[in-house]
Amino acid sequence: MKKEKNNVRSSTEVSEICHIPDVPVDSTGKKIVLLIAILAGFITPFDGSAVNIALPALGAEFHMDAIDLSWVATAYLLSSALFLVPFGKIADIYGRKKVFLYGITIFSLSSLIMTMVSSAEMLIGVRVVQGIGSAMIFGTGVAIVTSVFPPGERGRALGIYITAVYIGLSIGPLLGGAMTQYLGWRSIFFVNVPIGIIAILLILWKVKGEWAECRGEKFDLMGSVLYGAAVVAVMYGFSVLPAFKGTVLIAVGIIGIIVFALYEMRIPFPVLDITLLTKNRIFAFSNLSALINYSATFAVTFLLSLDLQYTKGFTPGHAGSILVVQPVVMAMISPIAGRLSDRIEPRTVASTGMAFTAFGLFLLIFLTEATPIWYLVVALIILGIGFGLFSSPNTNAIMSSVDKRYYGVASGMNGTMRLLGQMLSMGIAMMIFAIVIGPVEITPPYYSQFSLSLRYAFILFTVFCIIGIFTSLVRGKRSQTIHASIPEKSKK
Questions:
Q1: I need a surface site. Which of 105, 304, 462, 480 has the fewest CB within 10 A?
Q2: Taking the CA of residue 247 as centre, how many other CA atoms within 13 Å lie in the half-sphere pointing to its CB?
Q3: Distances (CA, A) of 395 to 156, 292, 298, 400
Q4: For the structural domain made of 277-492, what CATH number should be given?
Q5: How far is Cα 88 from Cα 92, in angstroms, rounded to an integer?
Q6: Integer angstrom CA distances of residue 107 from 113, 114, 131, 165, 351
Q7: Which residues contact residue 339 at a Cβ distance below 8 angstroms, ignoring those fewer than 6 apart?
Q8: Entry pTM
Q9: What is the distance between the alpha carbons of residues 28 and 6, in angstroms, rounded to a whole number?
Q10: Average pLDDT score over residue span 317-335
Q11: What residues does each domain of the chain span?
């Protein structure tokens, strides 16, 4: 028989290229791997979110204007998104432990350099390097946990790991504010160094073996360039909305994604096998649900922090002590949800979580200057339950829906949805502020417009989550997973 297309690999080619190593890991080894993942899963999002609270201090020291300050955060997010999927594929080819080790080393070293920067240009440049290290960590961390823990234990392990990620994201502003106030902004970066060193030593000392199911494949450099250019255009476009340039960049990015997809379908070893999205229903809709969830929730802490400090006159510390309720609840629920997703359908648990999140956001629509604190705390508890129930089962569904040889790519894709969702969430909030309030400082005369902006944002986010309930439910059952990218053995 003739080969129909040059991008279709025979079962013989796959078996020759994709050596699937047997890396036995005992109970102690699993705990060590999970501990390493927790350490890395905490410091990377903590760093990203804590820096935001330190921006005024950075601006004062280096005389940076608002645009320069925005690049401190944007440079990190853009470089992370640019490299997540490519490094996930590189890890599948050359070894996940190796890429993870390089990533935590780069991240820790660049964090140390951040404590010694002497100019705004150097600061932003090192943030780009930090983002690259973060991409190497997030492109492999979930994949390694998935490789080590079998399906019956995987959900619980992912739940613990994701708890660390969400805690890092959520308490970053609280701890970052305190550290900036009492120890200086450089302390935020220095705290990453000892944690990174501990993780590096544990990897070198305790983690044996390697996971590289696609050893021997050729890396798709052109596809990675197309993918990176498209993602950067979309993410940067969201960061400058509602300016016309933002709309143009998003449109260019979408066109770039289409070109990337067409190119990937024509080559034998793509960086992202498009059939994972076109023929694997669980993988596609689980990633879409993750994008929707992050888009609807990431800006919530930012908006509520402003509301508490502006309209209610709370100090940053007081506001942070209220907002910390949500991550505490999430940290309690996420491991339980992960364990549940090992026993029942992940889509059921995740969809329930999305429904809780939608209800919590719905309650926030009715916030006013006179709203009692207990009402806000109840809404935050419900949001924490929703976050906890959704994240780990959804990640479990993503990672369990693909073959071992795609764990790195799946992990990178999941991380990319997180970053795109964060940028979209903040882009929506900024766009609403620009339309309702305009380019003015938020002062008492504008509090009514500010409250109206919050209402519009929470209405939109609630609608997002209602749509997310649907996308989460229609993903299909775990038993219906299709490893479409693995060619069937040819019949003789």
A1: 480
A2: 4
A3: 11, 14, 17, 8
A4: 1.20.1250.20
A5: 6
A6: 10, 10, 8, 16, 34
A7: 155, 156, 159
A8: 0.75
A9: 45
A10: 80
A11: 22-215, 220-268, 277-492
